[in-house]
Amino acid sequence: MLFVFDTNVLISATLDEGICRQAFEIGKDNGQLARSEETFKELAKTLEKPRLQKYLEPETKIDFLANFLKMTKLFVATETITICRDPKDNMFLELAVSCKANALVTRDGDLLTLHPFRGIPIITVSNFVKLFT
Predict the structure, then answer these.
(1) What interhelical angle do 7-15 and 37-47 show, nearest 10?
(2) Are strands 122-123 and 103-105 parallel, antiparallel or unpaired?
(3) Beta-bridge partner residues of 74
(4) 3-class DSSP string for 54-121
(5) Cα 66 to chain centroid, rounded
(6) 44-64 per-residue burial string, b: 16 or more CB within 10 A, e: under 16
(7) From the CB of residue 105, how many other CB atoms can be counted at a distance below 10 Å?
(8) How far, in whole angstroms, is CA 43 from its chain's centroid?
(9) Which of 5, 23, 35, 110 has its CB 3.0 to 4.6 Å from that of 72, i.e. a possible disulfide?
(10) How far is it, in rounded angstroms, from Cα 32 to Cα 133?
(11) Contact indicator for 9, 129 with CB cutoff of 8 Å
(12) What angle do helix axes 19-30 and 125-132 make, rounded to 10 degrees?
């Protein structure tokens, strides 16, 4: 199985032991996580935002990004998608379609309203966890 996680879920998985971390662990234990160059750049850029600096040590960020690169599979978007009302979220749809993901996991309402997208479920973190527990 192949899963796409959006940036907000990954950031939350990095920051605490809550449901986003649980979903992240389930995703990597039950399949493979997909990334594109664009989604990885956004993750790295977001981890550098000033509001997150008080929560993350530099070593924690570096370790997370290095491990993320090792545990994910890189895909190149095969088409441009412009359907999402938040244009920044189109990269997750492009990745999900390009890798034929089994699910796109998000907490973003702009993505959730598109469920399903071209046959790919767009599901909340809690629903993803429920599928595997």
Answers:
(1) 40
(2) parallel
(3) 35
(4) CCCCHHHHHHHHHHHHHHEEECCCCCCCCCCCCHHHHHHHHHHHHHCCCEEECCCHHHHCCCCECCEC
(5) 16
(6) eeebeeeeeeeebeeeebeeb
(7) 28
(8) 9
(9) 35
(10) 18
(11) no
(12) 50
**CATH number of the CATH domain containing 111:** 3.40.50.1010
Per-residue model confidence as pLDDT tens digits over 78-125: 999 999 999 999 999 999 999 999 999 999 999 999 999 999 999 999
Tokens standing for residue 122: 């767009």
Q: Which residues span the domain enclosing 61? A: 2-132
> d(Cα 53, Cα 55) in Å, to the nearest integer?
5
Q: Is the pTM of this model over 0.90?
A: yes
* Among the listed residues 92, 98, 43, 94, the one whose alpha carbon sits nearest the alpha carbon of residue 69: 43
How far is residue 104 CA from its own chain's centroid?
7
Please tell me the total count of domains within the chain. Answer: 1
